[in-house]
Structure formats: structure tokens, C-alpha cells
Write a structure and sequence with these properties.
Layout (H helix, E strand, L loop, with lengths): L4 E6 L18 E4 L20 E8 L6 E6 L14 E6 L6 E8 L11 E9 H6 L4 E5 L10 E8 L6 E9 L12 E8 L5 E6 L14 E4 H4 L7 E8 L7 E9 H4 L8 E3 L11 E10 L1 H5 L18 H13 L7 E3 L1 E2 L2 E3 L4 E3 L2 E2 L8 E3 H15 L1 E2 L6 H13 L7 E7 L6 H11 L4 E7 L6 H7 L6 E2 L2 E2 L5 E5 L10 H12 L3 H11 L22
Parallel strand pairs: 25-26, 26-29
Antiparallel strand pairs: 1-5, 2-9, 3-4, 3-6, 6-7, 8-9, 10-13, 10-17, 11-12, 11-14, 14-15, 16-17, 18-23, 19-22, 20-21, 20-24, 27-28
InterPro entries: C2_dom, C2_domain_sf, C2B_Copine, Copine, Copine_C, VWF_A, vWFA_dom_sf
Pfam families: C2, Copine
Organism: Maylandia zebra
Length: 543
């Protein structure tokens, strides 16, 4: 069955327009209506000011039914060239023709009824037109008003990365250029993400801070994929303006950075000089006051809250603990000493609170081993009290960690099974695929149990049941990954024992064949069965 890609769409803020839900085989596209060029929009509806345009996107449910409103952009006041911030995510399927319609309006009041606003024009296209255009950027003239030029609309799209992180940050500035004749400036910031074709797309605007040259803006949160699509080295451009009521905002200056640089947090490296090449030089600066990324914390939540997948309920185990216990209690019978190394990933560790993707749950770097399943569960619960769940979530370090153990013992005397329990978010897909391909030639298997309601497309790809996983043109020697979503095994009656039994049965089903396939590939034969001798029995005392 074809899998969908996700797409960002940027729209205008009124209602109106036809849109067909698009789908493409396994293509997740980031559709954004980058409706910038509307330089020919009419001024007639508003006699003394520029119009605040807004647009509406419609999706036709069927040929017979009327189109449904998919969404509206924000309203931008007093401009003929709006650049909208709001984006929309759509499923995109290649084999379907998906019709879109964008209607543009001049907003005259707060009424949601579009009939009470001035219609400026509309654009019809398909999702395929946008994706198939050079650099996925489509420019079309607005129509819908006979005999009148209504302006131009630009629509752009980009494939969404797997990154699910959120970033929260706050900025301040010092000694900005004074742009107002009476009083000081009213500064605000505009953030742009760079596109693959070298252009920039607006992704965030701060609030306006009135009458100051030393503003402190409010903290704001933004998805990392909206800021850089998960590419931490991608350029982020920030422009500063002095707000004017008539919409002709005065350019103060700009600077560039990247998500990787912002991750350094508040320090001298995140103090930026504001540059205006078009005007006189003023020694002004913008500083990062605070920065925080949220991946595991945002998606899994605070373990003390019932909404978290890691919630420590005093009366029952959470999904992580149930999956661990279900699989571990069976597989531990095949380990002689019942001592297991247990690692966590995606958290900040005390005392310096650096992010780690490979840390011992028991806190002992020199000896990460736990005694049986009870020891692992105890270490897991203790770690939730001491670490801060954080992102990004990387699998490769843990896979490589176990692979180093397996690489040291390839004579068939030991076989390693790595159990990964995850909510489905993975930030290092390419590195993880490479790690699995390399591990496929070693005596090891990987079990992945997905918990929660997230989409597990990435995990299904790692499983490799349909298509053997590959990296850099190299195909994995064996299929060593087994993935199952825990939600498929939850008993409707709430019988957790039954759920755990079902999960363990399916998740461990492939391990024997994987073990045998490794032994056969290395021509390793089992040791001869020891010959039984009555003398081997310990003496017994007659009753």
C-alpha cells in the first residue's frame, strides 16, 4: 500500500478555495503557499490605505460535493506584497490528481463571513503542479475578476524531514537604529529559513515592541523543521524592522545564524551584529537570551504527568515498562548470568546537563549492567527521576554500542539481542540505517517496540521485511530488525498480561531464524551434544 508524504502548505487567511487532498507514494512534501508577489493587487476597495490580504484554501471532497475550506492564513495589514507565515501539512500521493483553489480577500472587519469582505482573486492548480515545478516553486496570476489584473501568487513546497523537535528561544537587542522622527523605533524580528534553491521563506515573526531601541522580545516556540527542516547547518536569516502603521516597515538590519549555532545557548557566540548594507552603519547587536529544544520532553511529556508515555503510575506499569517486561522476561532465560547492560538515549544528564544518546540507566558508566528484569525496571524508574528527557532522539549510538560487543565475539559462542523501546521519533535515520547495515554481519538482532500513537513509518523502513535496508548503496547482509507497535497488542478488556504475552510472542518470533542465518553464513556448527553418564549425577541420599 502506498505510503504518504507529508507536505507543508502556506495559505492566506480568508476562507475560500478548492483543495484536493493529495497523496504520493511515500513522499512527504512540505507545502507552503509562499504568497509573496501581489504587487499588482488593486487599491480600490480601500481608498486611503493598502489592503490587508488574506487567502483561503478549499479541498473538494468529490466532484458532486462542494469544496471544503482547508484553512486560512493570517491577515497582513496594509501591504500589496504579503509574505504569509502560516503553513499547512498535507498528505501527498503521486497517483491522484488533487485540485487546489486559493481565494484572496481584502479583510475589512473581524467577521468570519467572506461575503462581507472584498474578493481580490483566485488561483486554481494541482498539488502535482507545485511539486513538479522547478525547485517546487509555482508562480501563477490571480484571476476570477474579468478584465482585471489581480496580481500574482507564489506557491512553494518542500519535503518534510522526520525531525519532530521544537525549539523555544528568546532574543533581545541593544542600540538599534532610530527610525521614527518622533520617538524611538518599534522593532520586530522576522525569521527566514533557507530553501534548497538558495531562496528564503518566512517562518516566524515576533511581536512588535513599541518605542524602544533596546527591545526584549517574548520567548516563542517553533517546530525545528519549520525553522530548518531538521538540517541543523542550514542558514537562518533574521531581519529587523521598525513597525509603521501604514505597513511600510523600515528595514533596520539583518544577521544570519543556524540552528546548530543557536543550540550553543546564551553566550558570546550568540551575539550578532545587525548589518544594514543599504544605510549608515550603527553598532547595534541582537543577543540570544535563552534557548531550549524539546524532543523527548515535548512528545513523551513530564514523567510526573499522566499524559506522558513515561508516567510513573503507582498502580500499573507504563507502556515502556510493559514492553520491557514482556520481552525481557522471556529472553532472559537464555542468558546465563541474567546481567544486562541497560542504556537510555535522548536525555540531559546531571551535573552539567549535556544531551546524551548513550547513557547507563543505573548511572554507572563503568558498569551499566542490571540484575535481571527487575534490576532494569528499577534503574529505568530511578533514571526518570534524575535525567531530563530531551532531544534529538538518535538510535545509531546505541546500535553501534551493542555492535562493538558483538564484533568482539564472532565465534558463535554468544549472540546479542538489542531491545529498543521508542515513541517512533528518530532524528538520525541515515546514521541508524548505516549502523544496522554494518551490524547485519555481526551476531546480533534488534527488536524495536513502538509505544504511543505516533506514526512509525521510519521504524517500518528499518524492519526491512518488504525491502532489505541499505545505506550508501550497500544492502544489509541479513534482516536483523523486527519492529512491532505495542498499541496493536493492547487488549481491549485491559488485560495487560495478555497484551504482554501477545507482544512477546510476535516480537521474538524471528530471533531463532536470525540466529541460525548468522551461524550458517559463518559455517559455525553447534557443539556436539554432551554424552550423558550416570556418574554425572550428584549422589543422593535414600529417603
Amino acid at each position: 500500500m502506498p505510503k504518504s508524504r507529508t507536505v507543508f502548505v502556506r495559505q492566506w487567511e480568508n476562507s475560500g478555495g478548492l483543495l484536493a487532498f493529495v497523496r504520493l507514494p511515500r513522499v512527504s512534501e512540505n507545502f507552503r503557499e509562499n504568497l509573496r508577489k501581489m504587487n499588482e493587487l488593486t487599491r480600490l476597495p480601500d481608498l486611503f490605505t493598502y489592503l490587508p490580504p488574506s487567502s483561503v484554501l478549499y479541498i473538494p471532497v468529490s466532484v458532486q460535493k462542494a469544496a471544503g475550506v482547508f484553512g486560512r492564513t493570517e491577515v497582513i495589514d496594509n501591504t500589496l506584497n504579503p509574505d504569509f507565515v502560516r503553513k499547512y501539512i498535507l498528505d501527498y500521493f503521486f497517483e491522484e490528481k488533487q485540485n487546489l483553489r486559493f481565494d484572496v480577500y481584502d479583510i475589512d472587519s473581524k467577521s468570519p463571513d467572506l461575503a462581507k469582505h472584498d474578493f481580490l482573486g483566485q488561483v486554481f492548480c494541482t498539488l502535482g503542479e507545485i511539486v513538479g515545478s522547478p525547485a517546487s516553486r509555482l508562480e501563477k496570476p490571480l484571476g476570477g475578476i474579468p478584465g482585471k489584473k489581480c496580481g500574482t501568487v507564489i506557491l512553494s513546497a518542500e519535503e518534510l524531514g522526520n525531525c519532530r523537535d521544537y525549539a523555544t528561544m528568546q532574543f533581545c537587542a541593544n542600540k538599534l537604529d532610530k527610525k521614527d522622527f518622533f520617538g524611538k523605533s518599534d522593532p520586530f524580528m522576522v525569521f527566514y529559513r533557507s530553501n534548497e534553491d538558495g531562496t528564503f521563506t518566512i517562518c516566524h515573526k515576533t511581536e512588535v515592541v513599541k518605542n524602544t531601541l533596546n527591545p526584549v522580545w517574548e520567548p516563542f516556540s517553533i517546530p525545528v523543521r519549520a525553522l530548518c527542516n531538521g538540517d541543523y547547518d542550514r542558514t537562518i536569516k533574521v531581519e529587523l524592522y521598525d513597525w509603521d502603521r501604514d505597513g511600510s516597515h523600515d528595514f533596520i538590519g539583518e544577521f544570519t545564524t543556524s540552528f546548530k549555532e543557536l543550540c550553543r545557548g546564551q553566550n558570546q557566540l550568540n551575539v550578532y551584529e545587525v548589518i544594514n548594507l543599504l544605510g549608515p552603519f550603527f553598532p547595534s547587536q541582537v543577543s540570544l537570551l535563552s534557548f531550549m529544544t524539546l524532543t523527548s520532553l515535548f512528545l513523551k511529556g513530564n514523567p510526573s504527568q499522566s499524559t506522558s508515555l513515561h508516567y510513573m503510575n503507582p498502580y500499573q506499569m507504563n507502556a515502556y515498562a510493559m514492553a520491557l517486561k514482556a520481552v525481557g522476561e522471556i529472553i532472559q532465560d537464555y542468558d546465563s548470568d541474567k546481567m544486562f547492560p541497560a542504556l537510555g538515549f535522548g536525555a540531559k544528564l546531571p551535573p552539567d546537563w549535556r544531551v546524551s544518546h548513550e547513557f547507563p540507566l543505573n548511572g554507572n558508566v563503568d558498569n551499566p549492567y542490571c540484575n535481571g528484569m527487575e534490576g532494569i525496571l528499577e534503574a529505568y524508574h530511578q533514571s526518570l527521576k534524575t535525567v531530563q528527557l530531551y532531544g534529538p532522539t538518535n538510535f545509531a549510538p546505541v546500535v553501534n554500542h551493542v555492535a562493538r560487543y558483538a564484533a568482539a565475539v564472532q565465534d558463535g559462542s554468544q549472540y546479542f539481542v538489542l531491545l529498543i523501546i521508542t515513541d517512533g521519533v528518530i532524528s538520525d535515520m541515515a546514521q541508524t540505517k548505516e549502523a544496522i547495515v554494518n551490524a547485519a554481519k555481526l551476531p546480533m538482532s534488534i527488536i524495536i517496540v513502538g509505544v504511543g500513537q505516533a506514526e512509525f513509518d521510519a521504524m517500518v523502513e528499518l524492519d526491512g521485511d518488504d525491502v532489505r535496508i541499505s545505506s550508501r548503496g550497500k544492502v544489509a547482509e541479513r534482516d536483523i530488525v523486527q519492529f512491532v507497535p505495542f498499541r496493536d497488542y493492547m487488549d481491549r478488556t485491559g488485560n495487560h498480561v495478555l497484551s504482554m504475552a501477545r507482544l512477546a510472542k510476535d516480537v521474538l518470533a524471528e530471533i531463532p531464524d536470525q540466529l541460525i542465518s548468522y551461524m550458517k553464513s559463518r559455517a559455525i556448527k553447534p557443539n556436539p551434544v554432551p554424552v550423558y553418564s550416570p556418574s554425572d549425577e550428584p549422589p543422593t541420599n535414600p529417603v
